[in-house]
Amino acid sequence: MKILAIDTCTDACSAAILADGESWELFELAPRRHAELILPMIQSVLADAGLSPTQMDVVAFARGPGAFTGVRIGTAVAQGIALGADVPLVPVSTLAALALRGAISTAAEHVAPALDARMSQVYAGLFRRCGDGVIEICAERVASPDQALDGPSTAWVGLGSGWDAYPGELALAVPGTLGEYLANEHPHAADIARLGAEAIVTVGGVPADQAVPVYLRDRVVGS
Predict the structure, then answer these.
(1) Which of 65, 97, 125, 151 reaches 20 to 30 Å from 185, CA-CA?
(2) Over the stretch 118-165, which tens digit does the pLDDT of each residue have?
């Protein structure tokens, strides 16, 4: 299976190819430059893999939550590529991708990703690692940091920009104990690809015109 994956939902911008067990990725921290960078990144990883868009079987994309503009850019670019290649789309949670990245890098079983949502709020969820993927065990939400995490009492690792903005509040909100937090961890398209590969087998994809971004709130603030 050949999967093209993209992420433009946070300050990070990345594109990746997962093809028959091999992977290629470009990643850059580039706030507000996603529209400028994502298409050249896609072209570059395709060239590195020696593939064309029409050879893809699936396009996976980070569907949010995250910065409103970035979520819209990623959704639109993914839809355009999928329509042109006539392949299904797989929307992947930004928080799930961040959770997988953190679970792999720290070997943690339970991870608590949180993204700074501005307005004294975070986008957050709780996840458990399961093999090469993650299982959501607390529904994604947008909330104040002290009310963002609600789940089983166990040992957690925190991840993401929300922990940079509100470390004390989130640490107190964790249901159990906090082992550590990695405030500078970011979602990667490579993890979008891994989760997309699992999702296309277990739940299937969607037609390009039915791909829906997930904002978690309906007010645009600083995005």
Answers:
(1) 151
(2) 999 999 999 999 988 999 999 999 999 999 999 999 999 999 999 999
Specify the 3-state DSSP secondary structure of 187: coil
What pTM, to 2 d.p., does this model score?
Answer: 0.95
Residue range(s) defining the domain that contains residue 80? 2-93+187-210
Question: Do 89 and 199 belong to one domain?
Answer: yes
Is the separation of the CB atoms in 3 and 58 below 8 Å?
A: yes
Which residues make Cβ contacts (< 8 Å) with residue 126, sequence separation at least 6? Answer: 110, 111, 112, 136, 137, 138, 149, 150, 151, 152, 156, 175
* CATH number for the domain harbouring residue 9: 3.30.420.40
When pLDDT is cut at 50, 70 and 90, the band that residue 219 belongs to is low
